[in-house]
Amino acid sequence: MTNARRTLRGVLGVAGFLLVMEALGRTGIIDPYLIPLASTILTGAARLLANGEFLSQVGVTLSSCAIGLLLAAAVAVPLGTAMGTVPAVERSLRPLVEFLRPIPSLALLPLAMFLFLSGEQGKIALIVYTSCWPLLINTLYGLRDVDPLAKETLRSFGFGSYDVVRLVSLPSAAPFITTGVRIAASVALIVAVSVELVAGGDGIGVFVTQAASGNRRDVVLAATLWTGIIGLLVNSLLAKAESRLFRWHRARAGEEAL
Amino acid sequence: MLEISDLTHSYGAYQALGGVNLTVAEGELVCVVGPSGCGKSTLLRSIGGLLRPTGGRVLVQGRPVEKVPDDLAIVFQDYSRSLFPWMTVADNVSLPLRRRGGDRRSRAAAAVEALEQVGLPAAAGKYPWELSGGMQQRVAIARALAYKPALMLMDEPFGSVDAQTREDLEDLVLQVRRSSGMTIVLITHDIDESVYVGDRVVVLSKSPATVVGDLRVELPEPRDQIATREHPDFVHLRAEVGRLVRGMRSGEPAAAPEAEAASPEQEPAPAAPKA
Amino acid sequence: MKTIVSRIAWLWILPVVLVAWEVSTRAAQAVYFPPPSVILARLHELWFSGPAAHVFLTDEAAHHLLPSLGRLVVGWAGACLVAIAAGVALGRSAVLCDVFSPLIHFFRSVPPPLLIPIFMTMTGIGTPLQLTAIVFGVSWPVLLNSLDGARYVDRQYLETCEVFGISRFRRLTRVILPAASPKIFAGLRISVALALIMMILSEFIGSTEGIGYRMLVAQSELDVPTMWTAIVLLGILGFVLNAAFLRFERHVLTWHRGARKTD
């Protein structure tokens, strides 16, 4: 009942926004040359669905994000586990992490353009660098949250520390790690698009740059619309998976790092 | 001071109050008891103006309640959600005093005085979460005291503290009443507490709630946690209230068949031979 | 005393990494990784060898560093103030919340860099572009979090206000804002990083001054040490902003951590 009302209000909000934009454009209050009519953008967005070039560029961006995220997870989760279980490792590496983490990933873009001959590799490298941090921090955070009693229970049954990590620590840190993946995914998309805008190559960013230089604002905004929808979908799918998989775990890890 | 007539309230199809009539005189301390979920809180919220009842009338000091009356304070059960954790104890107590006028110094002095009254003179600079549950509830009482209301409503004020603290807080309420003379309506599900603290005990039936008993408590003053509770009148009154809460008529023996039928969700009393 | 010493001792990894970097890059004569000593010398010469009257900033620094910082701070702070005000206002109305939430969620999900090309066609190159980019990037997460925070203020806090007749203004400043502040700060934390990204990117794409612009010029001239000084500067900037923000947050939210611990 209330949920239906909420959805209805949301739909009205979106529809109202589109109508207002359309009206502002048609009456000339907003120059439709500067910001195209809402209807133009929407039909443009519909047309993009049949545009093979656009779809393949979207595919490029998404696959670099996915590869980058996987690589980042392969590095950050084991590292975070090591740091979270061995205090000496954590104390030694912590200062390095604290110094490297705030470096904005884009500051490394010119360097990456030198180091990697293909733009694609440079892009993935930057995605890995950026996504590592939320994954690492959330893994650490999750491991710190493990109930010591659960670990001691296992130890009292004679399990070694490897089994404790495998059977208790990692499963209870899993919800935090998943939250890390969700945060990392949204950052990865931002970094991927940024690299494409600056360094070229392939991807949504390149598609948008080309459309902008051809002065096709409607195409630019239509592509932006799709990218926003993709970001929204990925985020809500991951959030849904999180709450489905880890129903036992109510507390969400803080949206810590970007 | 307080007149309630034919008060009814429904949440959709569920009727919580089924026509409550109650009058409280100036300076009285009235305890309202009833089985859990009987609408005690709904009653208190309608008196306090936090809820607009679907029917009936509430008069505080002769005026119908439309919003929260000026001369009224409420002490909630959940002190951790009623005291603001980002303010110190002193700020929590003095925040409402702006409405009473006076400059910053006089407000601060009033806060200190109220904290002394509840036995927490040293807590002023602390944050609520640095205190134990019982101490936090004392702060909430101090806040109500400093506000100097004519009518103080207390909603299960000691429901979230341990037994020892509970007794201390009960005595605190008695002492506060003696020194300030304010009218207090205290809502509780604890029968002993209602008899120990109240001048009068009003018993509500299970929902839709109506008043099924209104007993005057005539116990020797000052009351004492040990002596009062073993006083024969106390024991008698407690049994009386207990029967009323379980839905039996006054003076009736426990576990009469119709009583069980009237309150099937109550735990069954020891079986008595059927007549 | 002992804890300070041991804390410093645990920083051993930083000098070790620096020395290893110095030695290995000298040995390998790596083109793209100049030794730290070279970067440091260039950093001094290029940015910080100016007259004492200019706090040792060179003209180069005044020309590139200060505009970047100014736009970053002004854009970030302005956007945050407006977004917090709007978020709290919307959050206090259930209807407005429901109406605007989907739109805000959507704008929050758009990668803000994508809009820079279109902003550029409206603002041209220069400060207006940087400001627009930063403001757009920062606004949505802060708006969303402020809205959420103000929406889910504990009902009992508000009832307490009602019972004790606390004025609307005080209710807002002393109760709703503090109650929403943990959420608001979560949004602000994200926004600091986003502001930096948008600053650098908009300087890469559409600017004739700023650290990002200077960095890209150095890259195109194959001036590797200068490029590295920009990396170091941006790293320091990120580090300082982050640390300052955390310190501020810790100060404002002391009560939050305290109250949570005892729950």
TrEMBL record, chain A:
Q: Which residues form a coiled coil?
A: none
Q: Which PROSITE patterns match?
A: ABC_TM1
One annotated Gene Ontology cellular component of this protein: plasma membrane
Topology class, membrane: Multi-pass membrane protein
Q: Which GO terms describe its biological process?
A: transmembrane transport
Highest rank taxon of the organism: Bacteria
Q: ABC transmembrane type-1 domain location, by residue?
A: 58-238
Q: Output the InterPro entries linked to this UniProt entry.
A: MetI-like, MetI-like_sf
Q: Which CDD domains match?
A: TM_PBP2 (cd06261)
Q: Where in the cell is it found?
A: Cell membrane
User: Which sequence ranges are marked TM in the entry?
Assistant: 35-51, 58-79, 99-117, 183-207, 219-238
> Pfam families annotated for this entry?
BPD_transp_1
Under Gene3D superfamilies, the record lists: MetI-like
Per UniProt, the keywords (alphabetical) are: Cell membrane, Membrane, Transmembrane, Transmembrane helix, Transport
Q: What is its main location?
A: membrane
Which protein family is named in the record? Belongs to the binding-protein-dependent transport system permease family.
Name assigned to this protein: NitT/TauT family transport system permease protein
TrEMBL record, chain B:
One GO molecular function term of this record is:
ATP binding
Indicate, by first and last residue, each region the UniProt record lists as having compositional bias (Low complexity). 252-275
- Its name, as the record gives it, is NitT/TauT family transport system ATP-binding protein
Its taxonomic placement starts with: Bacteria, Bacillati, Actinomycetota, Actinomycetes, Streptosporangiales
Q: What keyword terms does UniProt attach to this protein? A: ATP-binding, Nucleotide-binding, Transport
Question: Where do the record's region annotations for Disordered lie?
Answer: 248-275
Domain ABC transporter, chain residue ranges per copy: 2-231
Under PANTHER family, the record lists:
ALIPHATIC SULFONATES IMPORT ATP-BINDING PROTEIN SSUB, TAURINE IMPORT ATP-BINDING PROTEIN-RELATED
Stored Gene3D superfamilies: P-loop containing nucleotide triphosphate hydrolases (3.40.50.300)
The organism is Streptosporangium sandarakinum
Q: State the Pfam families in the record.
A: ABC_tran
Keyword hit for Methyltransferase: no
* Cross-referenced SMART domains: AAA
Q: InterPro entries under this entry?
A: AAA+_ATPase, ABC_transporter-like_ATP-bd, ABC_transporter-like_CS, ABC_transporter_ATP-bind, P-loop_NTPase
The answer on whether this UniProt entry bears the keyword Transmembrane reads no
TrEMBL record, chain C:
Alphabetic keyword roster: Cell membrane, Membrane, Transmembrane, Transmembrane helix, Transport
Q: How does it sit in the membrane?
A: Multi-pass membrane protein
What is an example of a Pfam family matching this protein?
BPD_transp_1
**Mind telling me which SUPFAM superfamilies this protein's record contains?**
MetI-like
Q: Give GO BP annotations, semicolon-separated.
A: transmembrane transport
Which GO terms of the cellular component aspect does the record hold?
Answer: plasma membrane
Output the InterPro entries linked to this UniProt entry: MetI-like, MetI-like_sf
CDD domains on file: TM_PBP2 (cd06261)
Q: Which residues form the ABC transmembrane type-1 domain?
A: 65-245
**Listed transmembrane segments:** 69-94, 114-143, 184-206, 226-248
Taxonomically, the superkingdom here is: Bacteria
Q: Which Gene3D superfamilies match?
A: MetI-like (1.10.3720.10)
* Compartments in which it is found: Cell membrane
The similarity annotation says: Belongs to the binding-protein-dependent transport system permease family.
- UniProt-recorded name of the protein: ABC-type nitrate/sulfonate/bicarbonate transport system permease component
Species of origin reads: Streptosporangium sandarakinum
